[in-house]
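Hey everyone, long-time lurker, first post.

I ran two proteins through the pipeline my lab uses and got sequence/structure pairs for each. Pasting them in order. The first:
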Amino acid sequence: MEYYLVALSAVVAASHVVLGPDHYVPFIGLGKAQNWSSKKLFFIIFLGGLLHVGSSVVIGSVGLLAGFSVSRLESVEAWRASIAPLLLIGFGIAYAVWGLKRSHHHAHEKLKTKSASVWMFMLVFVLGPCEPLIPIMFLAAVYGMAEVVLVIATFGIVTVASMLTVSFALHKGVSFLPSHKLEHHSHTIAGVVIAMTGFAVIIFGL
């Protein structure tokens, strides 16, 4: 068992979360706007993390079974990486516009609208790849499937744990903001924050 790969996957997983604001800022923004409880926020982050890692696990597993080269799969992940922030920007702008219209009309927010926005965001997040995972999977495959499974499990656990940890810290910080003064514009602000996160990912290559 090559434990250096396990350590590598843990370090890379934590680093790619901390350095990628798209892994936690949108969750905090959407949760604040929709007044999610801490329990709901962390459940959605947990689910999002699993789906986020799972999409790359599926692609990597198919590539290993089909005998594709790692460079071929990295090109697929690179394409997903270029599309994901654009979708995040699109979602953020659409949500901000919806929030702006809602604040002007003081419309009553419907549960269906909340659910739709959450699932749309989750879809955007699933399309965002865990780019570092696939090369590590290919390295682990040299030593056998048990190593691949261990690397995937480590990467997934550390990714989700890091998302929850960073989000918890931000959530505590955001809770001190005077939300009652921004209540009518919370959805618009959340949409702008989400869109800006997408722009940051593109501009700074996060």
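...and the second, right after it:
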Amino acid sequence: MSTGPADGDAAARADRADMERLKAGHDAALDDLMERHAAPVFHFLCRMVGNEEDANDLAQEAFVRVFKSRGTFRPEEKFSTWLFTIAANLARNHFRWRSRHPAVSLEMEAKETGQPLGETIPSGCAAPSEQALAGERDRAVRASVDRLPEDLREAVVLCEWEERSVAEAAAILDATPKAVEARLYRARRILREWLKPWLQG
């Protein structure tokens, strides 16, 4: 269920207050921030990296970074945008590591199911729009998004699955809104081509 503007304003005020407490040395404020944001960040990372275990590790690291960087947070910033920027950077670093260690990465992905990542979608990672898709089509969508170049995948995950505005996605990705719109356009064209058999079915 989506929250209205009033709910969003209240959450933003609570975030700013907790960050001020955190800066002032009240470490317990981090617990309150995690209570509100741990689940959304985990699901974002899960959709980005496609692996619950890695997403959980990266989500924890994101809050470690929040604590370490608490002094750089500006009260005029939206905390969730700042947090998702940290999470997106961690996901990028994760993909760079995987590209340099492909054998280790594939082994880790296949460890639990015996299947490569593109063959399975962890139950906790399915996007809401995927819930209506059945079996093979579900895997095809997930695998196709996973195949997108990093910049296009980020735009799709943030704007289509996380339902972030183009402006907020641009802030998270350190890009212009026009650049995000261009990435979405390119991603949709690629996905339509890759998923043509399913769209025609």
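Reply from user beta_strand_b:
Welcome! Quick read of the second one: The chain has ten helices and no strands. The radius of gyration is 18 Å.
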